[in-house]
Amino acid sequence: MKMDKLIEKLSRRLSHKNLITMIVILSVSIIAFLGVIFRNDITLPLSNLTSPVEDSNAASMPPLVVIDPGHGGSEPGAGSGQINEKDITLAISLEVEKILNEKHIDNILTRRDDTAVSLEDRTKLANEKKCSLFISIHNNSFTDPASHGILTTYNPYSPTGESNAEIMQSKLKTLGMFNRKIVPRPNLYVLRRTEMPSLLLEIGFISNKNDLKLLTSSDFQKKCAVQIVKGIEEILETNATASSESSSED
Ligand SMILES: [Zn+2]
């Protein structure tokens, strides 16, 4: 009888212990579970709070380049027979886009097909996206068919305009066209209305026989795109270094 009571008591105590153990495990689990939820509740708003601070620091943002193929749709630009400036500028721009994508440089084209886009919409897009660099691609034309060559135009009121144009032209002059160097153009709409460094490239003369032959060659268009991207990369690098140096001086 005594033995029976002892066993009963022991088994009660054991089950009591088991119950306590279960309660402890359950409590720990609930606390751990709540902890996960609680921690997530804190990190979400915290991360939301910190990201705009990072966004406001333009130097730490990956660069975004807007490529602007001149003309389009009902605005063919300069022409020679069946050949229109709008088609050449688009072909070169699409090659530039391809290389930028391969190099993982963020980019937007103001048009990707044969559509008319107003100058206002082109600059508005670049300003709204707060892009790092705006590159407009055109071809030249003149009444004298002897005029030929490649040049980079810039806004003389932009602090980096001239130096950026020098960088770009140093790449373009290797393409085998006559080097017309850099030209300040204070009245060009897209250069004046863009709120970031911008350049307008005049890739050869459609009105010149030799330039036109190059411009319509897909091989030249590709080589041209390679040099434009080299210019873009060097300009982005130079401007990023300049802005990080100026911010460290503050
Ligand atoms: Zn044009």
From TrEMBL:
Entry GO MF terms: N-acetylmuramoyl-L-alanine amidase activity
Protein biosynthesis listed as a keyword: no
UniProt-listed Pfam families: Amidase_3
Keyword annotations of the record: Hydrolase, Membrane, Transmembrane, Transmembrane helix
GO cellular component terms attached to this protein's record: outer membrane-bounded periplasmic space
Region annotation (Disordered) ranges: 60-82
Stored CDD domains: MurNAc-LAA
Biased composition (Gly residues): 70-80
Name listed for the protein in its UniProt record: Cell wall hydrolase
Lineage: Bacteria, Bacillati, Bacillota, Clostridia, Eubacteriales
